[in-house]
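Following up on my earlier thread - several people asked me to post the actual chain instead of describing it. Fair enough. Here it is, all 203 residues.
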Amino acid sequence: MKGQVITKVIGPERFETALRRFDEENAKDPNMEKCSDVDHPRELLYAQRLTEWVTRLSPRASEALRLAARCQHICRWMIPRSSHEMTRSGYLRWRNDLKQFHAEKSGEILREAGYPEDVIREVQSLNLKKTFPKDPEARVLEDALCLVFLQYQFAELLDRTDEAKMIGILQKTWKKMTPEAQAHALRLPFSSKEKALVDRALG
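Reply from S.P.:
Thanks for posting it. Predicted structure:
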């Protein structure tokens, strides 16, 4: 409750400054992704898409949630998968190191923008999923993450992943989503191949 009160009294200048700084950092991503025939830095595009889904799912989302959406994968390319062993344990260490890196990086930027530690901890808690699934805002963020995956990353992953494994990924994703997010997912413009796999996963 205390954190919610703090986020309400923060001026818009800090919020806009933090968003601008998050975007500036993500714009440095050397990996490009095409959108509407234009190349964009991948993590910048990801952050914008995640923000869009969060605000769509929760138009009255708190400031902390909107900040968390914009910095969820900040500078992700700086710790590539190849930096850890290509094993299951290496993958888990990579994921954990990424989470800590994102939290530290976002914390630095939020402090520069003038945010108090209470809000910074709230944002980092959302990014680290510490309160998922009990916290409603943590659920909104997770729903948004799943919807970004299904809308923008599913097709690419399907092209290089065994179908049986892909069905398992879809089933795990589906279980994390609320009924509202699942309804949104079913309305996404999947290709016939993607739709057939989703139907198999849910069937």
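The chain has two domains: 1-128, 139-203. That should answer part of your original question.
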